[in-house]
């Protein structure tokens, strides 16, 4: 083989490897706190070894023109986009994040689209074009000379050898971590829902209103001791109970909501079959209504449609749209669907405090300023982000107070339960938003309101409710608490996890 041609191929491989390093691999190292020259040397060596192993895999792709154009192009673009978020937000790639990306509706993660991302993507595509153009100019005929495969094979062998010595030494870094966590995701089994054949009995006549929030953390509620007036209305009430120690390890909607709406526990590590809340209620002759401002996600869509009535507002606009309806639009829909009959369960699913915060509340609720000015998080100050977030909480305060004001005029046995699906990270450890393993996103807000009639007729349940306020309770509580409220008979569930019981 002509030396010049071999040299061109090697130069091409080096160029590809350099592009992979800049756009993808380096993102795993950029946020690592290093304090000494020794630290830098160790991580530089690690980065170098990882790049060598990447060379082996990419080399094999170059052997076939169409294989390289299709597979490499897809991987380079998709992994570069993922790396953008690792670069800018220091996110951790995990099986949970893979699930969030693949199962969430597109408008959720498209809501993070920014000018910076678009510019970055343009640069990525230009780089890809240059790689493909160079690749097409090289003669990749090898004339069956085995020696040209020696170095790529050594590189691939190095990868498996290092992983055998210490699992994760390379696969916890980009781009390998995406492949590893994707394999874990596709090996997961879907949630198995038990079928209930018999009729269930509940003689209790209580209307339950469950408000399912989004991305609201307990810490930023004034009624929980937050220094800012984020609850100007609820803070004046003496008939609400705020549980500020609710816990969930599920820090994104597509995982937290299926757990909340079923008998599945946050501690379940095996995929055992579960009971769905609405199917149980329906068998107990309860009328169930779902009212939502979010398009159902794959992981809990089937649970939603177990309700007798499902009404989704603003389905034509995604959360990406600047014309997206506010959660306040749900209030009139709820009031129109509320009936004077007993034994109803209403679920109101909010868009809540999901990023982009400025699209979550009307301008009259802009209490704290200055607010965020860009969807690209690093372009905003910490103060701006927190101000915008707190304004969404002020709007939530209005939303819940309006529901309570409507319900307290009904003179019925009514319980309203507000629970956010998870919390939100607001700059702690330089992290933001959710879908990450951080305590700030594991502490969702939870507020309970009981009508006067309920307080008079169910004094024992109210007593236990008051006793449980300060306890650390997981989001497991919702399913058994609802069944405990209606005094469900002849059906097994963990009553001890109910917040209306003696020891949740």
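Sequence proposed for the structure above (504 residues):
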């Amino acid at each position: 083989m002509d030396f010049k041609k071999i040299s061109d191929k090697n130069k091409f491989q080096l160029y590809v490897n350099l592009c992979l390093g800049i756009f993808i691999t380096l993102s795993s190292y950029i946020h690592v706190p290093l304090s000494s020259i020794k630290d830098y040397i160790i991580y530089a060596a690690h980065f170098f070894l990882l790049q060598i192993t990447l060379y082996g895999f990419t080399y094999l792709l170059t052997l076939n023109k169409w294989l390289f154009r299709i597979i490499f192009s897809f991987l380079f673009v998709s992994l570069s986009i993922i790396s953008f978020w690792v670069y800018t937000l220091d996110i951790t790639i995990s099986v949970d994040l893979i699930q969030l990306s693949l199962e969430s509706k597109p408008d959720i993660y498209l809501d993070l689209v920014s000018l910076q991302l678009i510019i970055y993507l343009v640069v990525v595509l230009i780089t890809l074009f240059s790689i493909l153009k160079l690749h097409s100019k090289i003669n990749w005929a090898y004339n069956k000379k085995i020696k040209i495969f020696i170095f790529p094979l050594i590189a691939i062998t190095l990868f498996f050898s290092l992983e055998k010595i210490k699992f994760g030494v390379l696969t916890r870094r980009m781009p390998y971590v995406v492949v590893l966590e994707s394999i874990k995701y596709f090996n997961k089994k879907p949630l198995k829902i038990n079928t209930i054949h018999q009729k269930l009995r509940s003689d209790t006549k209580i209307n339950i209103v469950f408000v399912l929030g989004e991305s609201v953390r307990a810490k930023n509620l004034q009624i929980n001791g937050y220094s800012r007036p984020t609850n100007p209305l609820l803070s004046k009430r003496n008939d609400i109970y705020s549980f500020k120690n609710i816990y969930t390890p599920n820090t994104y909607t597509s995982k937290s909501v299926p757990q909340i709406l079923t008998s599945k526990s946050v501690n379940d590590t095996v995929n055992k079959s579960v009971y769905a809340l609405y199917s149980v209620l329906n068998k107990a002759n309860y009328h169930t209504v779902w009212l939502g401002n979010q398009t159902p996600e794959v992981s809990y869509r089937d649970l939603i449609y177990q309700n007798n009535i499902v009404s989704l507002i603003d389905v034509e606009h995604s959360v990406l749209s600047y014309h997206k309806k506010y959660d306040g639009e749900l209030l009139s829909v709820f009031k129109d669907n509320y009936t004077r009959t007993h034994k109803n369960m209403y679920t109101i699913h909010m868009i809540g405090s999901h990023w982009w915060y400025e699209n979550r509340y009307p301008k009259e609720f802009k209490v704290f300023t200055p607010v965020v000015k860009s969807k690209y998080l690093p372009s905003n100050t910490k103060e701006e982000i927190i101000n915008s977030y707190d304004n969404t909480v002020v709007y939530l305060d209005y939303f819940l107070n309006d529901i309570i004001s409507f319900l307290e005029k009904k003179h019925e046995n009514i319980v309203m339960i507000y629970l956010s699906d998870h919390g939100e990270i607001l700059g702690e450890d330089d992290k933001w938003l959710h879908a990450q393993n951080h305590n700030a996103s594991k502490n969702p807000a939870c507020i309970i309101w009981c009508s006067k009639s309920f307080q008079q007729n169910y004094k024992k349940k109210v007593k236990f409710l008051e006793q449980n306020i300060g306890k650390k309770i997981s989001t497991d509580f919702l399913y058994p608490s609802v069944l405990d409220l209606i005094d469900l008979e002849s059906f097994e569930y963990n009553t001890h996890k109910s917040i209306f019981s003696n020891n949740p």
